[in-house]
């Protein structure tokens, strides 16, 4: 289907949070939501970068500190939240650190940031979301989830660290969570959708928390990626669609070149992503690891 930010509905009166919105796809998402009238909070670990980002935005936008690699930070963010919340976009992520790294809570960095941080954030904000008549949670995954498998339940242990399969499992966890949230929230009216950006020229590769820990990759990425991959603006379209027009339980992504780019449509789910039993087991594990239970 053809879709661009011009197709977004009027979002006046919508209160929203976008994690990791100081750069890349998150920034574009926040910008376009605000341009359509939404009140948008950029939830960022780097507040200085977030404040710089909103200078070029129009509308009701503000920055709040959130480090998804720290459950204490997630809890503090949720405790500070005041007022309504209609839309939560779980966008932030870390990709492929060359060596094993941990969150503040001792979890592998990608599993802890990409999945556990967002799981806890959603659960802690759920009571506020459920007060909205249009509550929606969007979870951003990746085509890399096809590299994940049942070992997602091992939560990326230190002794077997490999960047690509561990990233794949963290993004598989995103999908398992988003789909299970939709199943469990059916009677509440909350809508859970998922999206992936294809392959886009963003700072995810250059980030020092991920592949950018390698100096050569960090230096080359800003020049090479725009020549090969689609723009961050196009990469944000699946998320924007999922945040406004996506059907409950839908997974949206580009349709061309192995879902790396092109017009939007239903994205392909791996066999593991469709495993409801695996999703339920991951949910229980995530509650144990975060100490957050969902009031559903």
UniProtKB/TrEMBL annotation:
Gene3D superfamilies (alphabetical): NAD(P)-binding Rossmann-like Domain
UniProt keywords, alphabetically: Oxidoreductase
Protein's UniProt keywords contain Oxidoreductase: yes
A molecular function GO annotation: oxidoreductase activity
Oxidoreductase among keywords: yes
Source organism, top-level taxon: Bacteria
PANTHER family associated with the record: PHOSPHATIDYLINOSITOL-GLYCAN BIOSYNTHESIS CLASS F PROTEIN, PHOSPHATIDYLINOSITOL-GLYCAN BIOSYNTHESIS CLASS F PROTEIN-RELATED
Identification of the protein by name: Dehydrogenase
Origin species: Nocardioides baekrokdamisoli
